[in-house]
Amino acid sequence: MNNFDVIICGAGAAGLYGAYNLSRDLNVLVIAKRELTLCNSSLAQGGIAGVYRSPADSPEKHKHDTFVAGGFENDPAATDVLVNEACIDIGKLIELGADFDKKEDGDYHRTLEGGHGMHRIFHHADSTGFEIETTLLETVKKLPNVTIWENTLVCDMAKTPTGFSFLMLKDGEYITANSHFAILATGGIGRVYEYTTNSAIATGDGIAMAYRLGAEIKNLSYIQFHPTAFNDHHTRECFLISEAVRGEGAYLKNCNGERFMQHYDKRLELAPRDVVSHSIIFEANRTGSKNFYLDITHKDPEFIRNRFPMIYKNLKDVGIDMTTDMIPIYPCQHYLMGGIKVDTYARTTIPDLYACGECSCTGVHGNNRLASNSLLEAHVFSRRAAADINEKAKTAPKAYAPHIFDLHENAPKIPHGYRTQIRAIMQNTYFVIPNVDELMNGLEQVTDILTVLDNGVFEINRDYVEARSLATVAYIILTEAFKICSESEELPNMPIFEAPDEDRY
Ligand SMILES: Cc1cc2nc3c(=O)[nH]c(=O)nc-3n(C[C@H](O)[C@H](O)[C@H](O)COP(=O)(O)OP(=O)(O)OC[C@H]3O[C@@H](n4cnc5c(N)ncnc54)[C@H](O)[C@@H]3O)c2cc1C
Fold this sequence. Notes:
alpha/beta, 4-stranded antiparallel sheet, 14 helices
């Protein structure tokens, strides 16, 4: 029998760091639905924010910036935990071998990103996430108490009298595994949109499973649209031009090659992401053009190539030299602030079920995440989840009571095209500035799709599992957004602008 003390669904930064922090006495299974490095953690460019051996900085200043970016909707207790414990996890990552860039004097190079008042972002050039993910993978693979299954899709989970049962599809076969404790670390929901920076795994599976179990889901309509994804609308996965490019002095320009942020917000290019994304949409409506650019050509070419080697290479591959050419950009879906509601130990509202990383809602991000706070959140709260489980596991039951899943044998495949339909609805109704006139219509269409998928009996395969997750996530987002719009005059997710120095045209 596949019985474990703890099953962790997800092998990104949150899942792996959770596994690392669990007691070596516990028998742990970590699952990834595709290859291990295919996750949002691997894609993170800018870095991990936190005050670690920085006398000029302080957790209070970090908290202040987090609150300003988050529209003061942040959970104060969770944010205190985040900023005060950042030093523990940044220190631990360094100890485990994460190679953060250093200056000539040997101290760490802390970079600046939009919304931060201090240089406090630890980074590995512009591929910090991959550095962290591979460091954690190397560490966790060596742990004798941890089993890792990759290319294993968790199709569903059930609560049992002794914990949880998971139905998985591994090497074409259905497998059941049981645990006393479960951590959902399944990442984001980007694939519910046509255009996203997220990796292919980001279909919200963990959120949908938790929702079906009855866990509280919070602020799922709090979606972050990154202002500067590379504008290549021929591909669904949009390559990100990191915030750090603006942090290092790049200008945002409109279709006429003119800077425009001074008309919207006095923080200019370094305003928080939601402000910049909204400004781009306002400016697009004003000029009638969706052509926007990031321009860093005024900086030393050598510096650009060394500071952004990955971005430089990726752009070069599509014929753009960022040392001499402006980079075409446009906002796209990037991050989810809401998710499975958890407390400061990552406990969901279901006993013994934990959630951490992007699929969780700790409340630290308010309505708009401050750059580089999500890797930090993934580490701080997965460590705290592990600490809580380590304590509770001392009195956990010894036996397992497996759930018998219905395998839908000989059932047909789901009808073709649901995922495409859902993505089109989301792009049309809820992209940066919600389309209030279309919300109800979109919600009705998504509800119809979800009803078919929830009530119909279809072959349990990746297409079905992910389409059902996307429909569930879209349904929750649009229901929440519709409620906000009906109850107030305000549009959901409107950022707080700081009065510009120049008039708004
Ligand atoms: C392009 C990009 C750049 C970013 N840059 C930064 C940055 O500079 N700094 C920062 O702080 N944040 C950044 N972020 C955000 C940050 O990377 C993510 O929020 C964070 O890494 C999420 O980690 P996670 O462990 O929660 O999820 P992920 O790393 O996405 O991992 C999810 C895991 O869940 C598994 N999974 C999902 N569903 C299933 C299933 N049904 N069955 C089995 N396994 C499943 C996946 O296989 C994967 O292993 C960036 C994000 C993107 C997309």
